[in-house]
Amino acid sequence: MNKQTKPKSINRREFIKLSGSSVAVLAGGISAKDAFGLLQKRKPKPKNILLIITDQQHIDTIAAGGCRHVRTPALDWLKRRGISFTQSYSSNPLCSPARSSIFTGRTSSEAGVHVNGRPIRRDIPNLGQWLYQETDYETVYAGKWHLPRSFTKNIPGFRVINTGIGGLGYLCDTVTSRACEAFLRNHSKSRSFLMVASFLQPHDICEWLRLNTNDPGQLRYEELADKLPELPENFQFDRNEPQAIKNTRQAREPFINGYWGKQHWRYYLWSYYRHIEFVDAEIGRILQALENSGQAKDTLIVFTSDHGEGLAHHQMVRKNTLYDESAKVSLIFSWPGHIPEDITDRSHLVCGLDVMPTLCDYVGINTPKMMRGRSIRPILEGKRVTGRDFVVTEVGANKARMVRTKQYKYTTYNDKSIEQLFDMKTDSGETKNLATSSRHASTLAEHKKLLGKWETQLELAPNVPNTDAWWYKA
Question: Which of 31, 175, 391, 418 is deepest in the core (most CB within 10 A)?
C-alpha cells in the first residue's frame, strides 16, 4: 500500500503569490480544492495601494468640500471618487507623533514618538514592514518621513524612491511627485505595490509665518485687498482657557513682536490657501500618472494629513493644540467600483490610528498585535455599523488629552488649571466651555472616565513618561 503523500507546506508570502489560482495549497494540509473555496469567500482586495499624506492641512481646504478660497482640482476629483470623513482626527496634532500613529496603528505614546524627531520603537512594525513581511506587495516611499529624520533614504520596510531635497515644500514636493510619476510609468503590473507619497506642503506656511512675524502696518500687496478671506466666526477666544493654550498662543508669530491687525490675519489666510494649491498640483501629477498607467481601477487611494492648522480660529496659527482646527484632518478613501463615490460621512468618528488596520483588512491580512485603531472597511462598503463611541487625541507625553464623543469634546491639560467641555453639535467653534456647568457635571465625569479607561489599556513606550492618569485622578 502506497504511503499517503503529505500535502506541501508553504509560507504566507508563497501562498499569496499563488492565491489568484486554484492550485494554492495552504500550510497545515488543506487541499487545493479547499484552499480555492476559501479564496472564493475572500473579500476582493486592491491590487495596489496609494497612500497620500500632506503636512499641516486644515480639514476644510478642499473646494469640492465647500472651501471658497482655493482651487483644488486634484483633491476635488479624489473626493468625488470616494468617501470623505468630516469627523476625522489626528491621534496627535504634531508631525512625528501623528505619523507614528498612521504607520503603526498605535498611539504616539506607545510608539515612543511623543515629540518630533524620534524613531518608532523597534518592536512595533510600521506599515511597510508589516506588508513586506505578510504579503507580496512591493513597498515604496517618497517624500517626508520624520521618524526620526524628515528626509532620509533609510526607512524600515520601504524602498525609498525619493529622499527630498530640503525642508521647503515648494522645492521637495515637486521632486516627490515626479519620483512617484516615474515609478508608476515604469512599474511592472505583475506585482502589487504600496506607494506612499508624503508631501511637505502646506507646511511651508511655517516659513511664511516666520517671515511675517511683524505687522507691516499696511497690506504688502494692495491689489489683494478685495480678495482676502474673511476671519472665522471664532476668531475671538475665551480668555479663561487652559494656561498651556495661552502659552502656546503667546509664543507664536502674531503675538511675538506685536499683535497683527485683522488685515494681516486675513493676508495669512490668503497665503495659506496658496500653499494648499501648491500641493494639490503635485497630487494631481500622481493621480494623472496612475490613470495613464492603466492601474487606477485596481488601486485603493487613501488621502490624509498628519494634523491641521490653526488658520486664525481662536487666533491660533500652526498646530499642537486640541482645538478642531489643529486636531482634525481630511481622510478620503477611493477605489472605483468597490467604494461608493461622492459620499461625505458626517457621523462616524475616525482617526489616524485607523489607517493601518483598514489597509490590512483590504489586503486580507491580520494586523500586528494591540492595534488601537480599527478597520473602517465596513463603513466604506456601506454596511450598517455603529462605529466607535469616541476617539482620543493626545499632545506630548503628558501635556494634554482629548476625548471626542458623538456630541461632546472634553480636553484636559496637565497643569490642571482649567478643563474644557464643548457641545460640538451646538458649538462647533468651541467657544462655550461647559466644564463648570452643573447641568453638565455628569457628562464631564463620563468623559473623564472614558479617558481614564483608555489610558489603562495603553502600553507606554519605555522612553515616554508615565502620566499616571493625571486627568482621571485629578
Answer: 391
